[in-house]
Amino acid sequence: MTAYQWPEPPRQTAVPLAPEGIPLIGAAAFVTAVFALLGMVVPALLGLLASLFCCYFFRDPDRVVPQKDLAVVAPADGKVIAVSRVERSPFKPGDFVKISIFMSVFNVHVNRMPVAGRVSRVDYRPGKFVNASLDKTSEDNERNSLEIETDDGRTLAVVQVAGLIARRIICRVQEDDVLARGQRFGVICFGSRVDVYLPSDSTANVNSGETVAAGSSIIAQLADPHRTGS
């Protein structure tokens, strides 16, 4: 039976929110209050809806993470839109298993580490804002890439990709930070995508069309380094 644990201490709050969303929520609530005081009913109602949607969008529930050896967990909530083999990662050429997860505006947008390890490189690149569900967005859109080195020396990459609506990628970590599997590392605002590049001998546990939850869903399994070939 798979054991689970918290990658970070649970927060003692009824409505956990990503810190990056609090200024926007506060601004929307302030404008709503001004409209209400002025007796402008329709703008006040629209402002209230906007405030509630911001609270919903920036929700950040605590998650328990499966403690299964060599497991790779989803870095984002959303729908798997591609599982493929590619000939390079954002950092180097080679054979990789690439898993892409698309987040609609209705998904939680907090991103989590797929494996435990050290952030060996961070590479931010500006770009376009095309629909994040299209394959070409991995190369053309604004993106932020992390290279992660595991304790046994393997490397993989996680890429935050901006989407059609997204205009802000937030990465909370920097080079040499060591994080646990399932620990929060960033946020993408208002619809986006996350790609994971795994070593070629990894086994994907998901297919296109499946829905996954960041930190909780196992999307792949790294190869056992102690397994001998037949």
Task: Provide structural commentary.
This protein folds into two domains: 19-57; 69-221, Distorted Sandwich (Glucose Permease (Domain IIA)), CATH 2.70.70. The chain is built from three helices and 16 strands. The chain has helices spanning 22-37, 41-57, 137-140, and strands at 4-5, 65-66, 71-73, 78-88, 93-103, 110-112, 117-125, 143-149, 155-162, 169-171, 178-179, 184-188, 192-199, 203-204, 211-212, 218-221. It has an eight-stranded antiparallel beta sheet with strand order 11-7-8-9-13-5-4-15. Strand 4 and strand 5 form a beta hairpin.
Average per-residue pLDDT, rounded, comes to: 89
Helix percentage range: 10-25%
Estimated share of beta-strand residues: 35-45%
In angstroms, what is the radius of gyration? Answer: 19 Å
Q: Please name the CATH topology of the largest domain.
A: Glucose Permease (Domain IIA)
- Structural class comes to alpha+beta
Please give the count of helices: 3
CATH superfamily of the largest domain: Glucose Permease (Domain IIA)
Uncertain spans: none
- Number of separate strands: 16
Any chance you could write out the topology, listing elements then pairs?
Blueprint: E1 4-5, H1 22-37, H2 41-57, E2 65-66, E3 71-73, E4 78-88, E5 93-103, E6 110-112, E7 117-125, H3 137-140, E8 143-149, E9 155-162, E10 169-171, E11 178-179, E12 184-188, E13 192-199, E14 203-204, E15 211-212, E16 218-221
Antiparallel strand pairs: 1-2, 3-16, 4-5, 4-15, 5-13, 6-12, 7-8, 7-11, 8-9, 9-13, 10-12, 14-16
